Prior knowledge:
- Chain A has 118 residues and is mainly β.
- Helix content of chain A is 0%, strand content 52%.
- The A-B interface holds A 4, 6, 33, 42-45, 47, 50, 52, 91, 95, 99, 101-111 and B 31, 33, 35, 40-45, 48, 55-56, 58-59, 89, 91, 93, 95, 98-99, 101-103, 105, 107-108, 110.
Amino acid sequence: AQTVTQSQPEMSVQEAETVTLSCTYDTSESDYYLFWYKQPPSRQMILVIRQEAYKQQNATENRFSVNFQKAAKSFSLKISDSQLGDAAMYFCAYRGYIEIQGAQKLVFGQGTRLTINP
Amino acid sequence: NAGVMQNPRHLVRRRGQEARLRCSPMKGHSHVYWYRQLPEEGLKFMVYLQKENIIDESGMPKERFSAEFPKEGPSILRIQQVVRGDSAAYFCASSELGTATEAFFGQGTRLTVV
């Protein structure tokens, strides 16, 4: 079974600085998707960024980028120029690629609470 | 195009009562997923449904929990004889296809069992 591990329960960063959130995962599949979700106090799950495992290029969305190391099974999220609105819980998630029963579900890490200091 | 709608947002039940959580997927979406989030934890998959079919219920507790997604109307997650340990946030997500790379989440229902 796939597992996702976020080893940093909490992180803090000064406003306008850069922060990196760590995520490792375990899978025997070669093709899959990885995601970072943001959960603010409103509880809404917001997709931040997505990476297809078959793509070597790291995904980027404005101030958010990932460092995807497939061999190391590592998928870290970098937030540049941190803003107060970035404060939230961040969850790393894994989803299988193959269309088999169970492949459609997301497997989440435990989350990292990010605090932005003004 | 409204997003995934869950209701109620908050639900309080006494031990032994039944809880019914509703999820209306996004327009055009026929695949629904339910997740549970215990306090200070990540979301855990419970069940994946298509219209009138349960595709994967590997995350559902064996007793007291059931889910349905009828041909008409919202998907329902039902918890019978609730216990304090059922207190959690329950999230629904929907996608257009089962193999879609992105599922859209609702805002969740926070269930409190007193």
